[in-house]
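=== RUN LOG ===
request id: a7f3
mode: sequence -> structure
chains: 1
length: 264
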Amino acid sequence: MTESPLISAFDEQTGVATLTFNRPTVLNAININMADAFLDAVKALSEQPGLRCIALTGAGRAFMAGGDVASMAGTREQTRDVINGLLVPLNEAILLLRSMDAPIISAVRGAAAGAGLSIALMADIIVAEENARFLIGYNGIGAVPDCGGTWFMANKIGSARAAEMMLLGRTLSAIEAKQFGLVTETSPESTFDGLLADTINRIANGPTQAFGAFRRLIDGANGTPLDIHLEAERQAFLKIAETADFAEGVSAFLAKRPAAFSGQ
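=== RESULT ===
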């Protein structure tokens, strides 16, 4: 029996839900099955009585290595279908999660790249092992960020540093990500579980409805609403997916060679 690409657990005593991205052999790269499972789990949580905190994590060596690029290698119509098959449920899940009162914590081990970085940034708090790495990744395949990556990053660290990460393809260590303002706390591997448990406990025992109000007030102060921005990202991704550079980027990624972009 195939194991679920998304594992959802809820502790009735603490009110803590844990969503684990579960494709460890491919560093939890998102495919359509995972996107659909993520949305299903989030919908279930939206009806869960006593929900106090939501923790996002990845199985194995990484939080999430982004989208499943191999699935985007096809005709334009096939690529559009894959992008929409990923982004429609993911965007709905993100909006639903952000509408809940329960604070969201991303627990990052290993890489948070591409859409994985976007989803990590969707959380209110990020705790990371010191060996974690954060990278935008999209410029390597000639694509644009999705899952709210441009919205969350610009709002968390400002447009200048967001542009630096996106245009230069910077990879940040956990310590650098904390200095940038992306990460809340870091810890060595040996003490990470304790840091995560303490953070979850503090959040889960807080004023959940007030925390929800905090998020909505902060989000409302950022200008463009998230739902409008998510749709703009999806449309931009679909348009860019029709370019020669995107086709070259995907081909180079699969061939494990540097991309030779032409600007077309």
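=== NOTES ===
The beta strands are 6-11, 16-21, 53-58, 104-108, 111-113, 125-129, 133-135, 171-173, 185-187.
The two ends are 44 Å apart (CA to CA).
=== END ===
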